Amino acid sequence: MRKLGPVALIFHTLFVIFILAPLAMVIAVSFTDKGYLSLPTDGLSLRWFYAILDNPSFIDAFWMSVWLAFISASIAVIIAVPAALAIARAKFAGRDVIAAFLLSPLMIPHLVLGVAFLQFYSRIGLGGSFYGLAAAHVILVTPYALRLALASATGLSTDAEHAALTLGANKFVVFRKITLPLILPGVAGGWLLSFITSFDELTMSVFVASPTTQTLPVRMYHHITQTIDPLIASVSTVLIVLTFALMMILDRFYGLDKVFVGKG
Amino acid sequence: MPTKNFNKTPYALTAPGVLFFTALLGAPVVMTFVLSLHSYDFTTGIQSDWTLANYADVLGDSYFHKIFARTFGLGLLVTAICVLIGVPEAYVLSRLSSRWRSIFLLVVLGPLLISVVVRTLGWALLFGGNGILTMIAQALGFSDEPVSLMFTFTGMTIALVHVLVPFMVISVWASLQKIDPQSEDAALSLGASKFTVLRRITLPQAMPGILSGSIIVFALTASAFATPAIIGGRRMKVVATAAYDEYLSTLNWPLGATIAVLLLLANIVIIVSFNKLIERRYAKVFE
If you placed Cys at B96, which of A10, B101, B148, B160 could pair as Cys (CB 3.0 to 4.6 Å)? Predict the structure, then answer.
């Protein structure tokens, strides 16, 4: 490993500052003791964190997002795992087409998805419903669950499964006791990445969500377009801390670099 | 899996996904396309005729030309800056000791998992009239007036680079991982200068990563919504915010659908042709 020169280290430092500056700014502003946007120069205060408790719309939106992300990540994994096993381990006509179809939401701008779902749901009478929003999120996150499941299922040896089948285990037992444990890191990583992706999603949800199904990013977006105040900064700080915790878990499970390679 | 002449299992395993996607992705996208072919009347709503008038409207209107040109220019600029700062950063990361590398990978990639709304809010706070930017400018004596980058093209560019540069870093980093360090050592021991090694050995092998990173950044910039909406606002409309306004303010859904279809087509054309280019030129690297 050759050492890095001073120029490289200065560049690296500036880059890291650039990445962290806006997040640090949000966190700093959220601790202000003033009633307006300012840096906490006269001492720290938690008043804007208490203020979140007086704004049930943010708390409702938070739980809506958690519930939505939980449901859509779970359904996405249920769809993606069997599909990944088939795509990774069997040769069949139309395999590439099916894989491309199930990964296609990655290539469609979220705006286009939002527009398409808004119109589709209002036509079939699901406009503004939670089911519609959840289905849209399943479409959105299934590719992430599929990609991570595919990565762990590809190249998996079938020897242990054959042995179990020969010894009289039925297919379900083989899946539960052998296949699933082998691909578990990919499945769990895929679920978590799907959860985070759904939780963060704004562009598509802003079209599909109604006032009764507002997710947290949508609620925050509407707040920011009206006014930017320390309240929105404290809500954001809570989100940064929660995301950071989930990120550490994801990193342990799967490796953060592996999660993002090829993400688009 | 035991193989028979015709095995139904793979189809059964993929069926839930395929059916779900056909009903809930295929149908909405097709319907959006159909909607873009209907005309709209401000008093009676969506008509049942078939026409290309919406496409003619969007493609012939100087208002939309400006928005498309701005979006395209923004995409190119953001991509160029991401290459300029993301590639060296990926190189630095690949040279760090494994301890520091895993820490800084978390720092650089972590923000991808934090909501775009939150990251953009940070820039709005930095850019606003009473933000840090003003303080620095006033402290250095550049300006007594508040300096604001809100609602400017520059502000939008900086914030989007911040949101998207991690994609460039990870993409380049992934291809740097595949380089055999011995090829660099060989070049050095044969008397090549460090710069020559960088230019003739490292950079060519990082090229697929730079190209695929560029395509991701460009595609995501072209369809970005949250950052242009918050930093650019009504004054700096891009394709995504224009479509949003057609849908939710003007309520001209066929016109909004037309913009969405054009955005989707442009996206697919760019991604597919870029992938073809990468595969053809760098087929060997991927083997």
Answer: B101
Q: What mean pLDDT is predicted for residues A199-207?
A: 94
Kindly indicate the confidence band of residue A264, based on its pLDDT and cuts at 50, 70 and 90.
Answer: very low
Domains delineated in chain B: 63-286 (1.10.3720.10)
pLDDT 10s digits, A109-148 = 999 999 999 989 988 988 889 999 999 999 999 999 999 9
Distance CA B213, CA A4 (A): 24
**Nearest residue of chain B to residue A202 (CA atoms):** B226
Task: Using an 8 Å CB-CB cutoff, list chain B residues near A216.
Answer: 115
pLDDT score, position B136: 73
Phi, then psi, of B250 in degrees rounded to 5: -75, -25
B202 three-class SS: helix
| Domain count along chain A | 1
For the complex shown, is ipTM > 0.90? Answer: no
Phi-psi category of residue A262: left, alpha or beta, with phi > 0 → left and psi -120 to 50 → alpha: left
Residue A144 in contact with residue A76, Cβ under 8 Å?
Answer: yes
CA distance A104 to B115: 22
The pTM of this model reads: 0.88
| Beta-bridge partners for B46 | B40
**Dist CA B30 CA B235 (whole Å):** 32
d(C-alpha B15, C-alpha B5), whole Å? 20
Residue A161 lies in a domain: yes
Look at A111 and B244 and tell me if their CB atoms are within 8 Å.
yes
Is the separation of the CB atoms in B176 and B206 below 8 Å?
Answer: yes
- The domain that holds A148 is classified in CATH as 1.10.3720.10
Q: What is the three-class DSSP state of B45? A: strand
Residues of A in contact with B267 (CB under 8 A): 107-109
